[in-house]
Amino acid sequence: MLHAMNTLTHTQRQQLQTSLEQRQTQLQQELAAVQQEQEQHAEDTEDMPREPDANQSRDTSDREVRHAELLRDQQELQAVKAALQRMEDGSYGECVSCGKNVAPERLQVSPAAARCIQCQTKAEAQP
Ligand SMILES: [Zn+2]
């Protein structure tokens, strides 16, 4: 029996699961490294005498960039975990908003995608 073109084959699903698992490991390592670095940094600064304000703004913006990266990694990790969860319960590949199949081409580009392109566009357009 032939399914429509917009469903994943067994092989495609397995490949996506592998790349999701790899991405999950990678993100967890990145986050652990950042956390370790932050703890290290906190220890370093504790004993240091207070610096004049000259360097502070630079430090602050560096930290903000790092914080933004950290948040992005955390969000991606959540999306990856959710996708793996959907693989387990068998709903992977279906749009979480409208329930239609997400195009396999889209999943191959972003395996953690939870929505079809229409619903994603709509979600991003919302304020
Ligand atoms: Zn949808």
Helical amount among residues, as a percent range? 55-70%
Question: What is the CATH level 1 assignment?
Answer: Mainly Alpha
Number of strands: 0
Poorly predicted ranges: none
Q: Give the amount of beta strand, in percent.
A: under 5%
Mean pLDDT rating = 87
Q: Gap between N and C termini, in Å?
A: 44 Å
Order of helices and strands: HHHH
* Total of helices: 4
| Shape verdict | elongated
Rg calculated over all Cα atoms: 20 Å
Second CATH tier, the architecture: Up-down Bundle
Task: List the defining traits of the structure above.
Four Helix Bundle (Hemerythrin (Met), subunit A), mainly alpha, binds zinc ion, 4 helices, single chain, 127 residues
Please give a structural write-up.
The structure is a single chain. By secondary structure, the protein is mostly helical. The chain has a single domain, classed as DksA, coiled-coil domain (Four Helix Bundle (Hemerythrin (Met), subunit A), Up-down Bundle). The N and C termini lie far apart (44 Å). Bound molecules: zinc ion. Zinc ion binds next to helix 4. The site of zinc ion (ZN) has 8 residues, from helix 4.
